[in-house]
Specification:
The protein is an alpha+beta fold. The chain is built from 9 helices and 4 strands; from the N terminus they run βαβαααααααββα.
Length: about 200
């Protein structure tokens, strides 16, 4: 079966833009997806990246314009400068990992809902009550998942996922890896689909 490694950040609008489109691809082509929430705060220093507010003003300006363009193109009502960006907690990513550990089969949906809360609803996803409401709407055991998210088990997995990302030369969010090919950015999803079709045609 074809496999894609998906390195994502709950605080990345670009990850959010590609999330549902990636879901359509993996369903259409029956792809096995491995989703890795990672800590880009550790990846940036070793890859030459900078957090948004440390980037030159030229880059910050074009980023906001691009967010607006892509939001309109994808028909997503994104707030380009949400009140609670950047997310300063790793708890949302740890919660996604907790949902994976518990085999809820809703970790992908949970990730999407967390990003929607941040980028569309303009909620503070660093707050536990906000995360609890999101998990409750998915009919998940929010108390159990939040407790697990704060455990060493989840923290260690986040560190492991981040190391995997660094070892695979990931530097930005989102990054998709198919075979030996690294696809950085939601605007590369069309290339991923082409890659998948080539694999099918070669069988």
């Amino acid at each position: 079966m074809i496999e894609i490694d998906y390195f994502m950040s709950h605080g990345s609008p670009w990850t959010f833009f590609g999330h549902d489109r990636l879901k359509k691809i993996i369903k259409q082509y029956n792809v096995n997806l491995k989703m890795y929430p990672v800590n880009y705060g550790e990846i940036f220093p070793v890859s030459g990246g900078l957090p948004v507010f440390k980037r030159p003003l030229q880059r910050q300006k074009i980023r906001l314009q691009e967010l607006k363009r892509w939001g309109e193109f994808l028909n997503i009502n994104i707030v380009t400068e949400p009140a609670y960006f950047p997310s300063r907690s790793l708890l949302p990513s740890l919660l996604i990992i907790a949902a994976q550990i518990r085999k809820t089969n809703k970790d992908f949906e949970l990730a999407g809902d967390i990003m929607n809360a941040l980028w569309v609803e303009e909620l503070n996803v660093d707050e536990e009550n906000v995360l609890k409401n999101i998990t409750d709407k998915l009919e998940l055991d929010s108390e159990d998942l939040l407790s697990l998210a704060k455990s060493p088990e989840c923290e260690n997995l986040l560190k492991e996922y981040t190391k995997i990302a660094i070892d695979k030369y990931v530097f930005g969010a989102p990054t998709y890896i198919l075979e030996d090919q690294i696809y950085w950015g939601q605007d590369r999803l069309e290339f991923i689909e082409r890659h998948i079709l080539k694999l099918y045609n070669s069988q």
